[in-house]
Amino acid sequence: MSKKELAELIAGQFNLLKSQAGEIVDFAFDRIKENLVTGNEVAIAGFGKFFVSARAAREGRNPATSETIKIPASKAAKFKAAKQLKDALN
């Protein structure tokens, strides 16, 4: 499902214009992103938790040349599904 499809579903369900629903979807995703950027977790009851994970610097290998390269430390957004979501999937 894309953001556009989600906005269309919200617009149909709540009798909104597609543009209004799109703004709501964008607003929600922007708030999630802002919280992750500041290092906060975002927990949505019954759905799951978004959090930031730190990746340490490490050495890797260029597959084309077999040359050893340094991969810098980085951060990544991760998601852990809530029990209710896991149960619904299984």
From TrEMBL:
Molecular functions (GO terms): DNA binding; structural constituent of chromatin
Key words, A-Z: DNA condensation, DNA-binding
Pfam families associated with the record: Bac_DNA_binding
SMART domains registered for this protein in UniProt: BHL
PROSITE patterns linked to this entry: HISTONE_LIKE
GO biological processes: chromosome condensation
Coiled coil feature spans: none
InterPro entries the record matches: Hist_DNA-bd, Histone-like_DNA-bd_CS, IHF-like_DNA-bd_dom_sf
TM segment ranges: none
Family per similarity comment: Belongs to the bacterial histone-like protein family.
Protein name: DNA-binding protein HU
Organism classification: Bacteria, Bacillati, Mycoplasmatota, Mollicutes, Entomoplasmatales
